[in-house]
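Hello,

Our lab assistant flagged a job as stuck in the queue for most of the afternoon. It eventually completed. Since we weren't sure the result was trustworthy after the delay, we are filing this so someone can double-check. Below is the sequence as submitted and the structure that was eventually returned. Let us know if re-running is recommended.
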Amino acid sequence: MTVTTQLDFDKSAGLLPVIVRHAGRGDVLMLGYMNRAAWEQTLATGWVTFFSRSRQRLWLKGETSGHRLRLVRAFADCDGDALLVEAEFEGQPAVCHEGYRGCFFRAWSDGEFRPQGERVFDPAEVYGR
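-- returned structure --
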């Protein structure tokens, strides 16, 4: 059995949720989705690739910013319908389009989510927005 056939892409309309954590530090960086083609491209290239639900196409993480993720290891959950990917940064040590290291930078406090930590980069300089 190959790794791809051990994953159940049919269970969730062809998309598996993918949690990405930093391979060295262990902190959770982001959540994305992969279809079979994104998973196979990730394995073939070593660069974490997702399926963009909004654009309905494959999306190489960092294709615009240059802040790519190099695959280190991947784990499937017990049902084969979710992935945990360990990755390392190339470029800025950040994955969030808002300039933070990871996408989970808002913490619940006093009835609202508030940013924690400092930005790693200025999104206006990277994305021109």
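-- support follow-up --
The delay was a queue issue, not a problem with the job. The result is valid. The radius of gyration is 15 Å. Strands lie at 16-22, 28-34, 49-52, 57-60, 68-76, 83-90, 106-109, 112-115.
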